[in-house]
Each structure stands twice: as C-alpha cells, then as structure tokens.
Amino acid sequence: MKARVFVSLKSTVLDPQGQTVRSALAGLGYHDIADVRQGKFFDVTLAEGTPREQARRDIETIAHEVLANPVIEEYRVEFLD
Amino acid sequence: MKARVFVSLKSTVLDPQGQTVRSALAGLGYHDIADVRQGKFFDVTLAEGTPREQARRDIETIAHEVLANPVIEEYRVEFLD
Fold it and tell me: A30, A48, B32, B77: which sits with the fewest CB atoms below 10 Å from its CB?
C-alpha cells in the first residue's frame, strides 16, 4: 500500500522559497508568472501485509504529528492503492 | 491559470532525506513503514490574460530548465484549470 502526503505552508504564511523562485523567474524573463508557492510531498510505502485500516490510521497520525507542522503547515493524504 | 509542478528524485537516485524520515519513523515505533521518498512541488500562478498556449509552453520550459535538475530529478506538470 502506498500513500502520498502533501505538505504546504498555510496560505496565510509567507513563503520565502516560493518568492525567491518567482523573482528568479522574473529575472529570467518569465514575466507572466504571478506567484509561486513551494511545498513538499512524501511517498510512503507500507510494509506488505499491513492491515488497511491500521495503515490509514498510521499515515494520518504520521502526517499530522511528524511530517507537517500544524502551526504553519497544512497537509493532505492521498492513498494510491 | 494555475499549474502544479512535481519534482522528485529519479528512482535510481538515493534519497537521504526520505531515508532519514523513514528511520525516524521506525524510531517512533512505526515499523510498518517500508520506504519514504521525499519530493517537492511548486504551485505556479500565471498572470491573468496569459494566452493558454504560451502559459503551457512557459511552464514546461520552467519545469525543465529551472525547477528540476534533469540529471537526477524527474518532473510532472499538472494544469489545475
């Protein structure tokens, strides 16, 4: 079983990395780029034979407690199979 | 118009960040996690009025030349509207 956890800064939080990419792109002549925000994702593979329900619970807990910082970040979990 | 560019290490390339997350999770008791690989994504917003065709071309070029390092990374572009 595989899951993908997307982690991004909350929309109210400044994203300096994204702003740097945006201004670099403007410097390269891409003036049609209005905004860039960067995030990260984690492709998590669970051991074979993990019960589906437990896997879902674990991934949710891991996303909330380990992969994302809920103070400034939000996350979304997608189960791939 | 919005696009999301996913960038991840090629599957043949070692991912030390992902491995660190994986071993941290094992240390926390999550032994059902077999593998973790980390990637990043960029949410790109294009200026209003950008012709659709030009926007698509620009995003493809930006993904290939700026956001990803084609030697070790692969990318995928998703247009959100």
Answer: A48
